[in-house]
Amino acid sequence: MVDGLSVIVSGGSMGGLFAALALGEAGHSVDVFERAAGELEGRGAGIVAQPSMLDYLERRGIACRGGYTLTTHRREYLNRDGSLREARSDSMTFTGWDTLYRRLRDAVVEGRYHEGHVVGFERDGEEVVVRFADGSERRADLLVIAEGGRSETREALLPDVSPEYAGYVAWRGLIGERDVPSDLIERFEDTFVFFEGERQLILGYLIPGPDGETGRGERRLNWVWYDDVRDRERLDELLTDSQGTERDFSVAPGDLRGEVERDLRRAAEEEFPDPFSRLVGETREPFVQTIYDLSAPEMAFGRVCLLGDAAFVARPHTAAGTAKAAADAIGLGAALDGSDPVTALGDWERERLAAGRRLVREGIRMGEGYMG
Asked: Where is the signal peptide (predicted)?
């Protein structure tokens, strides 16, 4: 094993945190830099917690799955009038993005998570010189880029690679269990619920509270509405926030323009069955994200590598984005057990490129099935 590799991770979200944990466990010295360090903890959305990721966290004593997840055992599809169209047994485990983030963040070695924005790097022999927005520099044996799908560093490395809009958006919302009528909660109890319309899909499920609370009254209802938006002018309108700023990929909770939010609730009432029309109507701060595909042809560049969404973004239908970032990180930790980091990164890249391509293809296939 190579002892004492110094590693800088650019990006302190899910991929960056998993990288810090896996590389730290492998015996390397890891520092994580996140430009929005004070903002991440408040992000809220439901995610599917894949078994491989849950097993990793439990084996390492980071999180016991029963303490921050909820599992449904039934899947239902509704008709427009709210009646049951189809039901089947199906086990799915969910958590909150913020819930998982807190557990990962708490597991990172004290003093190794920093606020900082990586703006560039140079290779200097067997080291990488990393530059930050404040003008400072640091040297490391390895630079891991975990900046997400809008990675500026990836754009510098691969200027011809950019996210490709899929033609639809995801409206999302979270609402506390205490803020909705009990009969609405009961509709989602132990059940993953769907409604499919004409180029429309909405789904909902219960997730734990922000700190992993799973008791009745402490949980949250999470919903996602995939909405066909192929008209560029309409998309631009949706992505213009309450301050008049046009966003590229998303508008955060609380920042939707009033007319957009009113149209959203009206459309839900007209197009969706109860319980979804009520659920959207009672959500205080819905938000919107564009759906896009991203595939990088390379992940390793000497002593620099791309990880997680910085390399591949698969549509959320796969329910595997966070798990894929975790697998990238865990694989990287295992690969850097050899004598030559550059060779190890090459071997790791071949495996993770194949996995990323498969996931993106599956996301496209699923999206076309839902949205046409």
From this structure: none
CB 263 within 8 Å of CB 299? no
Q: Taking a C-beta distance cutoff of 8 angstroms, is the pair 364, 343 a contact?
A: no
Which CATH number is 65-95+165-291's, of 2.40.10.350, 3.30.9.60, 2.120.10.70, 3.30.450.20?
A: 3.30.9.60
CATH (residue range 6-35+116-161+296-371): 3.50.50.60
* Site of tokens 């754009």: 155
For the chain, the domains span 6-35+116-161+296-371, 65-95+165-291
- The terminus-to-terminus CA distance of the chain in angstroms comes to 50
pLDDT in tens, the chain (372 residues): 446 899 999 999 999 999 999 999 999 999 999 998 666 766 779 999 999 999 999 999 999 888 999 999 999 999 999 999 999 999 999 999 999 999 999 999 999 999 999 999 999 999 999 999 999 999 999 999 999 999 999 999 999 999 999 999 999 999 999 999 999 999 999 999 999 998 899 999 999 999 999 999 999 999 999 999 999 999 999 999 999 999 999 999 999 999 999 999 999 999 999 999 999 999 999 999 999 999 999 999 999 999 999 999 999 999 999 999 999 999 999 999 877 899 999 999 999 999 999 999 999 999 999 997
Cα distance between residue 101 and residue 211, in whole Å = 10
Report the alpha-carbon distance of residue 129 to residue 142 in Å, rounded: 10
pTM above 0.70, yes or no: yes
- Give CA–CA dist 124/127, Å, rounded: 5
C-beta neighbour count of 194 within 10 angstroms: 17
* H or E segment and range at residue 343: helix 341-371
Cα dihedral angle (106, 108, 109, 112), rounded to 10 degrees? Answer: -110
